[in-house]
Amino acid sequence: xxxxxxxGPGLVKPSETLSLTxxxxxxxxxxxxxxxxxxxxxxKGLEWIGSxxxxxxxxxxxxxxxxxxxxxxxxxxxFSLKLSSVTAADTAVYYCARExxxxxxxxxxxxxxxxxxx
Amino acid sequence: xxxxTQPHSVSESPGKTVTISxxxxxxSIASNYxxxxxxxxxxxxxTVIYEDNQRxxxxxxxxxxxxxxxxxxxxxxxxxxxxEDEADYYCQSYDSSNLVFGGxxxxxxx
Lengths: 118, 110
Hints:
The complex is a heterodimer.
Chain A: E1 3-7, E2 11-12, E3 18-25, E4 34-40, E5 47-53, E6 58-60, E7 68-73, E8 78-83, E9 92-101, E10 104-108, E11 112-116
Parallel strand pairs in A: 2-11
Antiparallel strand pairs in A: 1-3, 3-8, 4-5, 4-9, 5-6, 7-8, 9-10, 9-11
Chain B: E1 4-5, E2 9-12, E3 18-24, E4 35-39, E5 46-49, E6 63-68, E7 73-78, E8 87-94, E9 99-101, E10 105-109
Parallel strand pairs in B: 2-10
Antiparallel strand pairs in B: 1-3, 3-7, 4-5, 4-8, 6-7, 8-9, 8-10
Organism (chain B): Homo sapiens
Keywords (chain B): Immunoglobulin domain
């Protein structure tokens, strides 16, 4: 059974870089599929951040593209998110997900809450 | 870029049928598949419909999806409503380089 688990700091200071990692178990990232990040601000809806193919090619939300980097480490079966120059508007629950097609998330992590505050 | 617009909330009684709409602002709804996700309070989203009208294994056939090119919208229909269906529902679609979620619809089963 495929499982995804997000990890990283729960508190980030404004203007700093948010860094999260998603560890995948039960499936080898190098076998295929896209792997994505989605966030949900408190009380609000879902926002796609970006996706990475197992080979390393990426797609980013145009509204976040200048601040986002997604990378993959197949040796650790992990993929990561970096979001730079964060503000309070970046406070959210961050989910990682497997994208069985790049446009369709079939397995989600439980999510991790990140608060941006000084 | 395009947007997906959903009603903020809908409510219906147990046993009844409810339909949630999702209207695409630009570009044809039929050009790119639509997915629907269910999110119960405090939980991660799960897929109830993918590729317009396909149900993942384990999703009951009370859930169905469709698209209507005339209104440029997609719909999620849930029949035989159960209290456990009470949740937020999000539609989602994409274009060549962007993946978009609707704003979500809160379904109340009362």
